[in-house]
């Protein structure tokens, strides 16, 4: 999980991928979702298997185990893997396929494990909402979304597809990084219940660890919200990038809620499965998963309210800054208004002498006083001092 960048006094740290010219708050993940939608071919045959661009070459991993046996290996060829799997039907197996860029291999896996083409299409599409489907006498097809708060300060999510069978769990991931290593470590220890329970318990463990990773994601979001709040108070000037990041994290939280809601509904569907498909002893564990999904949703709702308050705080802070600026300008204007009046008064061109050589005694006699200019400057200075004292006593200068 990425750490929150250190606080700056007046600037907002931007993600490495974001340039100064690119301050659009729309998320990369949202653009990726739009790209996924555009990939859909209108009218294509259902069950068509399509490998999308930038897919990874498949890597094949298998952990074979029971109460007394453990073997973990990465296979260079699928033939070796399926041969070992078929020769050791008495063991339980976790087959982990990472990467999709080999259509013939995907078709072979689909045929060997009797997967429906529509399900395999969902796997390769890699942008399915969380769900569970029962097929072929109690086997399950489950989809989950793995999340992480990335160094780009955005929520990244990947699809985890699971197929359960009588002696195996088959998992698919689109890249080589995942959040499932803790489950592998439990199996490697030899003391985990996974070694002694049916494969459905492994499917539960994988689902549970995906849900557990929601909480570090939300914790990182919570830390970043606090980080933004401190930046709002510490920033000495308006920064539109700051508002952009606030709106970005708001979008990420909304997106996170869209990921967790289907996960909660999926687990509810699992709990509704008949006992011959999902035994009651396993439903106890999935109820715990349901509790975790509800807690994650509660956190998301709480952070959504926090971000809404953050937007209001930002706008209120900017309004207060504007009020401070207006107050300073008003004070300056108030000081110069009487000065401008006095100077404008003495700028009138009323002549002291009339055209007939006489004296107009009422036309500014002080213009000919030898100390007229210093006296006027003193009066102007006195006006300024009186105004400043008055403003100070009113508390307008604080």
Tell me the layout of helices and strands.
Elements: H1 28-39, E1 59-65, E2 70-75, H2 78-87, E3 92-98, H3 103-112, H4 117-125, E4 131-135, E5 139-149, E6 155-164, E7 168-173, H5 181-189, H6 199-212, H7 214-234, H8 240-272, H9 280-345, H10 372-393
Parallel strand pairs: 3-7
Antiparallel strand pairs: 1-2, 1-3, 4-5, 5-6, 6-7
Helix pairs in contact: 6-9, 7-8, 7-9, 8-9, 9-10
Short description:
The chain has 398 residues and is of the alpha+beta class.
Give a structural overview.
The protein is α+β, with helices and mostly antiparallel strands. It has two domains: 56-318, 2-Layer Sandwich (Beta Polymerase, domain 2), CATH 3.30.460.20; 319-393, Methane Monooxygenase Hydroxylase, Chain G, domain 1 (Up-down Bundle), CATH 1.20.58. It has helices at 28-39, 78-87, 103-112, 117-125, 181-189, 199-212, 214-234, 240-272, 280-345, 372-393, and strands spanning 59-65, 70-75, 92-98, 131-135, 139-149, 155-164, 168-173. Strands 2-1-3-7-6-5-4 form a seven-stranded mixed β-sheet, sandwiched between helices. The chain is rod-shaped. The protein starts with 27 loop residues before the first helix and ends in a 5-residue tail after the last helix.
């Amino acid at each position: 999980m990425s750490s929150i960048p250190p606080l700056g006094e007046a600037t907002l740290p931007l993600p490495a991928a974001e340039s100064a010219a690119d301050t659009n708050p729309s998320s990369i993940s949202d653009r990726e979702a739009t790209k996924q939608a555009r990939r859909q071919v209108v009218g294509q045959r259902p069950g068509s298997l399509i490998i999308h661009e930038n897919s990874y070459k498949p890597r094949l991993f298998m952990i074979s185990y029971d109460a007394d046996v453990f073997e973990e290996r990465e296979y260079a060829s699928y033939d070796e893997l399926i041969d070992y799997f078929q020769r050791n039907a008495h063991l339980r197996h976790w087959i982990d396929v990472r990467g999709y860029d080999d259509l013939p291999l995907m078709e072979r896996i689909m045929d060997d494990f009797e997967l429906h083409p529509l399900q395999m299409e969902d796997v390769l599409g890699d942008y399915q909402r969380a769900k569970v489907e029962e097929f072929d006498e109690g086997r399950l097809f489950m989809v989950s979304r793995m999340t992480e708060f990335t160094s780009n300060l955005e929520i990244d999510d990947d699809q985890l597809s699971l197929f359960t069978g009588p002696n195996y769990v088959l998992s698919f991931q689109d890249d080589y990084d995942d959040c499932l290593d803790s489950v592998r470590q439990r199996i490697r220890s030899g003391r985990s219940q996974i070694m002694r329970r049916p494969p459905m318990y492994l499917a539960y463990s994988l689902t549970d660890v995906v849900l557990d990773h929601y909480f570090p994601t939300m914790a990182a979001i919570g830390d970043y919200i606090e980080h933004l709040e401190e930046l709002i108070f510490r920033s000495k000037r308006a920064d539109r990038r700051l508002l952009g990041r606030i709106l970005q994290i708001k979008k990420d939280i909304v997106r996170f809620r869209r990921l967790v809601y289907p996960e909660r509904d999926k687990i509810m569907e699992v709990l509704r499965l008949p006992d011959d498909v999902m035994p009651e002893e396993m439903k106890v564990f999935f109820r715990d998963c349901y509790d975790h999904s509800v807690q994650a949703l509660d956190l998301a709702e709480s952070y959504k309210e926090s971000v809404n308050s953050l937007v209001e705080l930002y706008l209120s802070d900017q309004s207060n800054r504007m009020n401070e600026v207006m107050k300073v300008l008003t004070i300056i204007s108030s000081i110069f208004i009487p000065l401008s009046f006095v100077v404008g008064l003495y700028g009138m061109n009323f002549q002291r002498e009339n055209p007939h050589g006489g004296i107009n005694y009422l036309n500014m006699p002080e213009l000919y006083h030898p100390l007229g200019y210093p006296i006027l400057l003193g009066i102007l200075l006195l006006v300024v001092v009186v105004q400043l004292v008055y403003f100070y006593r009113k508390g307008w200068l604080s």
